[in-house]
Every structure is written in structure tokens, then in C-alpha cells.
Amino acid sequence: MATANELIQKALSLSPGERIEWVEQVLNSLDRPDKAIDKLWAEESERRLEAYRSGEMESFSMDDVMAKYFLKRMSGFSLRPRRSWTKPWNTMNRNCPA
Fold it and tell me: Measured between alpha carbons, how far is 1 from 86 in angstroms, rounded to an integer?
């Protein structure tokens, strides 16, 4: 069996379209339903909903949450591009640095 490094080298020799197909297949192989995990998330969501309904947990608007993390990101923002930026804008395309 090939090592991870050997597979990576082979993948890098593929055309861009073939690499995308390869990556999709690898990612799909990791995204398998797991009933135990689904059950744990269902239980957690029920606990959170009950805590919210009973007043033990407060809620925040999506706008407040997004503003908090946008400001947190912008606090270290500089107009000079960083060499470490691999893609300059986040995937949500909200015009904030990645």
C-alpha cells in the first residue's frame, strides 16, 4: 500500500479536474453517517433548547454573533497584505480578511 506522501505526489501529477474529483472522493469517504454521533447531537440540541426555554441560556442574534467575530478579525487587520494569506477573503465573502 502506498504511503500518504506517495499518494499526495501522485495526486499532484493529475490534471486540476482529476485532482478535484480525487479530493471529492476522499472527502466523501470521510463523511459517513454515524448513528452514535447523530444521537449525541440530538441529545445536546434538546438540552440546549430546554436550557433556552427555561431561561438558563440566553440567545444572541446572528447579526450580533457575526459582528463580534468580524470585529475580532478586524482588530489585527492591516492594509498591507500578509505573505501568509493564501486566499485574501473569507469563504463567506463578507469583505473581511481571511
Answer: 32
